[in-house]
Amino acid sequence: MAPSVPITFNPKSDQQLREIEGENGLQDSVIVKAKWIKPIERRRAGQTHAYAILQVTSVDAANLVIRDGLTIRGVSVRPSKQNRNLHNA
Question: How many separate domains does the chain show?
Answer without folding.
Answer: 1
